[in-house]
Amino acid sequence: MGHVKGYSKLASLGNILLVATGFDIGLSTKCVVIPKEMDMCHKIGYSEMRLPNLMGHTSMAEVILKSTTWQHLAQTDCHPHVRTFLCSLFAPICLDTFIHPCRSMCVAVRDSCAPVLACHGHPWPDSLDCDRFPADEDMCLASLTKEYKYLHKVLPKPACQTCPAVEEFFTHKRVLEVFCDTVKVKLSKKRTVFGDQEYNIECQVEFITQGSLLPYETQSMIQKWLLINENCTQRMTPTYRPMVYLLVGNIEEGIILVNQVYRWQRRDSQLNLATQKWRYHKCFGSVVTPESIG
């Protein structure tokens, strides 16, 4: 990793390269603590930010209001450096000079994250036009994509897709077929302090059968799928009461796709019959390890 004298606070950001010169801040800015409402900018290696910021926001109330619309995108992890990119603009580190993100970082984040915004019906905004950021030969933050891939396991990614209908089981045989390639999730939603809706997986994702992903990876991947495909999540949580679903999907060319969604109805007689027969059921082409699915 590259280093510039006087910028040791950036060391814990990880996977970031600092390159050559910046510009003076001036006397009109001040250091303030990053507010608790800006979750995406916590645990990134520093706790104080410059105000006004690089987006031209002059008050903390304005910073919080404008940044909350981006926190949803940051939670999808649409790019390894999406949080670093956004926080360098909304909550720039409190140093003697502003450190912009490099144009190359902007392009990389835009190319990965613009499809997520498009899935929600929003274009990449003019305020984040990558041409406004410095070239890599200036002092700026640039992602070290090759090092990131080397140090971190590359996992399948959820993508924006057509929302599958929430289906009902018809026979216990169909239930058993679904059990052979599915995960079980319990979803809930709540209102945030800003009036938005937030969706959560309330418990550990359960495997009906062990798939190609490890359980701790699947929890994160399904959460991101729900964030990206919010239209599906809204359909699956019509009320504020937690609901349980079976998600049937597969991985194609590194992309996680959910093909079918089934509502888990505990009182369904066919579902109960299927759970009784599951212990003896053999999935085609796989070895079944029964787990508790009650």
Walk me through this protein's architecture.
Pfam families: Fz. Disulfide bonds join 41-87, 106-130. Its main location: secreted. Belongs to the secreted frizzled-related protein (sFRP) family. The protein is an alpha+beta fold and 294 residues long. It has 2 domains: 8-151, Orthogonal Bundle (Frizzled cysteine-rich domain); 157-280, no CATH class. 30% of the residues lie in helices and 21% in strands. Strands 8, 9, 10, 11, 12, 13 and 14 form a 7-stranded mixed β-sheet that branches. It has a 3-stranded mixed β-sheet with strand order 1-7-6. β10 and β11 (197-201) form a beta hairpin. The radius of gyration is 23 Å and the shape is elongated. The relative contact order is 0.13.
Write the layout of secondary structure elements.
Blueprint: E1 16-18, E2 23-24, E3 30-33, E4 48-51, H1 60-75, H2 82-90, E5 97-98, E6 100-101, H3 103-119, E7 140-143, H4 145-151, E8 157-158, E9 166-167, H5 172-179, E10 182-191, E11 197-201, E12 206-207, H6 215-228, H7 230-236, E13 243-252, E14 255-263, H8 269-277
Parallel strand pairs: 6-7, 8-14, 9-14
Antiparallel strand pairs: 1-7, 2-5, 3-4, 10-11, 10-12, 10-13, 13-14
Helix pairs in contact: 1-2, 5-8
* Order of secondary-structure elements: EEEEHHEEHEHEEHEEEHHEEH
Determine the CATH superfamily of the largest domain: Frizzled cysteine-rich domain
Could you report the average pLDDT, rounded to the nearest whole number? 76
CATH architecture of the largest domain: Orthogonal Bundle
